[in-house]
Protein: N-terminal nucleophile aminohydrolases superfamily protein
Organism: Prunus dulcis
Amino acid sequence: MQTRNGRQSVLVFSHHFQPFREASADRARFDSSWVGPNLSGIKAANGVVIATEKKLPSILVDEASVKKIQSLTPNIGVVYSGMGPDFRVLVRKSRKQAEQYHRLYKEPIPVTQLVRETAAVMQEFTQSGGVRPFGVSLLVAGFDDSGPQLYQVDPSGSYFSWKASAMGRMYTDDMELDDAVHTAILTLKEGVLTPAEIEDYLAEVE
């Protein structure tokens, strides 16, 4: 197919009818040596919790230089699994979109709107010439006029709203924020071999 800038982009599909480029990006979020797939997000009645383990490739790496949870706006945060450089690019694009919305409408961007814009960028990179798909999956958590929000965005640009987006058995609809924090930590600990291998980073958005 031909893109808007005139470059050619060929989509090759696997036997599962998934583009190979998209499938490779999806695998990258699990295969990267810098990060692992262990992250969780839980929507409580009065807020949202996102948590992740933080693995360093070497004990010589400065821990402060590896940040897996970032703020996009004062009321929206994001955590990722996949390739760190790709995540930083998406963070910059999302922050720019949020700032443009604020300048135009004089109010914070809704969580759903920012997720939609970010997902559109990720989807465009699956079919544009001269670029590759982003090798990350995102959990976006925030609080707006609609209440607490939690979304998962995949490398394909697909996004879904979730109550909880990790393997867990203790979720309830009336869960309070403090309970969600403890559940997120326990969920991560169940997914690793030893407690010494994980470090929890929590973002509470109220």
Observations:
- Residues 84-105 form the longest helix (22 residues).
- The mean pLDDT is 75.
- Residues 43 and 62 are 31 Å apart (CA to CA).
- The first strand starts at residue 39 and ends at 44.
